[in-house]
Amino acid sequence: MLDAVDRRIVAATQAGLPLVCEPYRAIAEKLGLEEADIIARLKRLLGEGAIRRIGAIPNHYALGFTANGMSVWDVADDAVAGIGAKIGALDEVTHCYERPRHLPLWPYNLFAMVHGHTRDEVRAKVERIARLIGPAARAHDVLFSTRILKKTGLRIAA
Amino acid sequence: MPVIDPTSRAIINGLQGGFPLTPRPFRDAGLELGLSEGELIEGVRDLVGAGRLSRFGPLWNAELLGGDVCLAAIAVPPERFDEVAEQVNAHPEIAHNYERTHALNMWFVVSAEDPRRIAEVIAEIEAETGLGVHAMPKMHEFFVGFRVEV
């Protein structure tokens, strides 16, 4: 869990790092802290997983990855952890989660997001995933997004 | 497919993680990419300015910040789609909402700092729309590659 200083660091960096030679010093000056303290806290938060990674956060659409497919899979509950770890490690998969089924409408319990320049490229990637999973996938589907109805970023108050 | 210059390509492909936690991180990362400190800073500024990067910095894990996030889906009759989208989007807790190709044709993310709000928002949407909301909370997250190559 984050302490009050961590939360101030989140608020100061959620729009991005200052694009200057010494970004951590710039944050420290803004918050009235030491640069070494900012660096140490960011290292700890990265280690704990509160920060997933630090670097370039791509805008998929602006980079031409306009096809966005949610591939969904029905796999045996006792196999989902092993398969999920394998699928999640693929570079072409941006998120991979186990979620509950909603029978009979929704038999799928494993979700893997796949991005591409075209729907065919996404379908080809999904077929590669299907071959990787093999017969353990009892059924699968891919749901393309046809419209973004809303998209707002995460915002945490200090 | 947008045209991407070599500096941008090096930044996008090479810096989707692992940005150094050192006093001069742009200089240190630039050594790996064959860019000077100034070239890297300018390159990142251009990519953010052009919207090709959403931002440059830490990607925070929303759940570990004390909030909760839940994916949910509704099968919306096509003739009511726009009206229901408006009703759903009117809730500030809805972070994303996508139309998708399936009988379950509306997929949105409910996020709230107070996890109890998630169930409340879903109940409100069910009452307002008269449609069943299928909550699909994350049960397990698997290691994620999370990269795009340009």
TrEMBL record, chain A:
Q: Which residues form the Siroheme decarboxylase AsnC-like ligand binding domain?
A: 63-150
Q: Which SMART domains match?
A: HTH_ASNC
**Entry's EC annotation:** 4.1.1.111
Pfam families referenced in this protein's UniProt entry, alphabetically: AsnC_trans_reg2 (PF17805), NirdL-like_HTH (PF22451)
Q: Which UniProt keywords apply?
A: Lyase
Under catalytic activity, the entry for this protein gives: siroheme + 2 H(+) = 12,18-didecarboxysiroheme + 2 CO2
Q: Is Lyase set as a keyword in this record?
A: yes
Which GO molecular function terms does the record list? Answer: lyase activity
Pathway linked to the protein: Porphyrin-containing compound metabolism
User: Which superkingdom?
Assistant: Bacteria
InterPro entries reported for this sequence = AsnC_trans_reg2, HTH-Siroheme_Decarb, NirdL-like_HTH, Tscrpt_reg_AsnC-like, WH_DNA-bd_sf
Q: Which residues form the Siroheme decarboxylase NirL-like HTH domain?
A: 6-52
The Swiss-Prot or TrEMBL record describes its family as follows: Belongs to the Ahb/Nir family.
- The protein in question is named siroheme decarboxylase
UniProtKB/TrEMBL annotation, chain B:
Extract the GO molecular function terms from the UniProt entry. lyase activity
Coiled coil, from the record: none
Q: Which Pfam families match?
A: AsnC_trans_reg2 (PF17805), NirdL-like_HTH (PF22451)
Please give the superkingdom of this protein's source.
Bacteria
Annotated EC: 4.1.1.111
Q: Any keyword Lyase?
A: yes
Its pathway? Porphyrin-containing compound metabolism
> Taking every annotated instance into account, which residue ranges of this chain make up the domain Siroheme decarboxylase AsnC-like ligand binding?
70-142
Domain Siroheme decarboxylase NirL-like HTH as annotated: residue spans: 9-51
Reaction(s) catalysed by this chain, per the record, are:
siroheme + 2 H(+) = 12,18-didecarboxysiroheme + 2 CO2
Q: What class of enzyme is it?
A: lyase
Instruction: List membrane-spanning regions.
Output: none
**Keywords, sorted A to Z:** Lyase
What is the similarity comment for this entry? Belongs to the Ahb/Nir family.
Q: What is the name listed in the Swiss-Prot or TrEMBL entry for this protein? A: Siroheme decarboxylase NirG subunit
Organism annotation: Bradyrhizobium sediminis
**Upper classification of the organism:** Bacteria, Pseudomonadati, Pseudomonadota, Alphaproteobacteria, Hyphomicrobiales
